[in-house]
Amino acid sequence: MKKRYFLQFLLWLVFALAHPECVAKPPNIIFLFADDQAYDTLGCYGNPDVRTPNIDRLGHAGLIFDRHYNTTAICMASRANVMTGLLEYRTGCNFMHGPMMRSIWEQSYPVRLRAKGYRTGFGGKFGFAVADAPGQSADEHQYEHLPLEDFDFWVGGVGQTHYATEKNKYLAHYADRFSHSTRAYGAAGIDFIRTSSKTKQPFCLTLFFKAPHRPTTPDPAFDDVYKATTFRKLPNYGRAFGNHLAPQSRLGRQYPRFEEWGYHTETSYQDAMRTYHQQIYGIDVAVGMILDELEIQGIADETVIIYSSDNGFFNGSHGLGSKVLPYEEGARVPMVIFDPRVPVSHRGRRTTAVSGNIDIAATIMDLAGIENRSKLDGQSLMPLVRGQVASIRERLPLIQVWGATGSLTFGVVTQHYKYLYWCYGEGMQPREELFDLQFDPYEMRNLLHIPTEHPALPRMRAHYASELALWKQMAVPFHGYQPFGIIFDPEVPWARKRDLLPAPFKP
Ligand SMILES: [Ca+2]
């Protein structure tokens, strides 16, 4: 070897040893996403009543995130967040607002990974439509408004999709083997992995399970799993632990659902939890099917797996049911990343770093070697997974611009505290809430109620003001997002805000 080439080789070797991820083949990526799965529903999150051995296995071999939030805690908006790495006021996409513009979709991780040479697959509830221009109607219930052509493999569905496999157009051919869609998605995942492993391309599989979203429809194959289980309740369970919250928190549909969905009596609570957890058990079985196939194909050591949920769930906490509100049970969810390439010494850990659903696209792009991520709101979580850093951000915004006008909320969460501002002032005062999540993880005490000003309040108000300034600066000019820059401004009186409310929110 000539001296010049030898020197070049030595330089490459030094670089390769320092940055093995840059010279190795990019990993396969599997992103598994549940619908409405609360943070405390997995064995690896400390719930002693549940059986989730496959997801637990991922957690124990990877990194478990204990402070992972959906920046918007409802299906459509959250799916738009994870696909793009953008906050809701930049995706412009939610129920009561509108579909995603194609120009924004084209920045999503599935499109960018495919352009980078990845084979991409999607299965499950896509959740939002893609439109060419603002004001153009696009309906997530119609296949022609979903971006099927941007995937190499598609078993996705429109709207809420169906639990019965046979009712989903692109999944129906699995119905003879698995009549319930959760395991059918597992079977579809196996097929995608099998065909992808025969190509030279890396692959990215995204599976958005319908479970455990209502209407409660567990796979009867697992009727025996929780037959004898009595489920615990979280310490903030019940109406008595909701009285201290802002009255605006009781104006959304979450409040009546505590009784409508049966969380209010011991018998109906246990029934609700049995079927809820049975649906999550079904996801765990599907995850096991996928993990087994990776072993069979000999690619388990080159496939990164991410597991999370689109929003949390109030199973009776604070006397609430359902999701949407940015309290811990509504916004915080399980999040597990397993990267088999991380040294064993750095695996099997937990992190309390604050992370968000906007980080998922950034993480997937980082894994795929896409370096230009500066326009994303999210950060790659890989430095946390590799144990290189202890945190990736100081604060994360929490957005709630859907549903009853009274329940509109904007807030910010940090390592230690959460600050929420409830703007609604019709017959009541707008409210602030401050929770110390380190000492009060169940949000039993609003620190605005103590007689002296809490020392953290000015700092949290400043964080909120910074996030509100970003909203004012960055919100898309369509789908009713810009007015919320003023509607969420605590300095502006409610009387002035009333006229600014977008049409669906006018009282
Ligand atoms: Ca959901």
Protein model, in words:
The protein has 507 residues and is an alpha/beta fold. The protein has 2 domains: 25-392, 3-Layer(aba) Sandwich (Alkaline Phosphatase, subunit A); 397-505, Arylsulfatase, C-terminal domain, CATH 3.30.1120. The protein is built from 16 helices and 18 strands. The strands form 5 sheets. It has an 8-stranded mixed beta sheet, with helices on both faces. A hairpin with an 8-residue loop joins strand 17 and strand 18. It starts with a helix and ends in a 10-residue tail after the last helix. Bound molecules: calcium ion. Calcium ion (CA) binds next to loops.
Question: How are the secondary structure elements laid out?
Answer:
Elements lengths: L2 H16 L1 H4 L4 E7 L18 H9 L1 E3 L2 E2 L5 H10 L3 H4 L8 E2 H4 L3 H7 L3 E7 L4 E2 L21 E5 L23 H16 L6 E6 L45 H7 L5 H31 L6 E7 L4 E2 L5 E2 L5 H4 L3 E4 L10 E3 L3 E2 L2 H9 L14 H4 L9 E6 L8 E6 L2 E6 L8 E6 L20 H18 L9 H4 L6 H4 L10
Parallel strand pairs: 1-8, 1-9, 2-13, 3-14, 4-6, 5-7, 5-8
Antiparallel strand pairs: 2-12, 9-12, 10-11, 15-16, 16-17, 17-18
The protein binds calcium ion (CA).
Calcium ion binds next to loops.
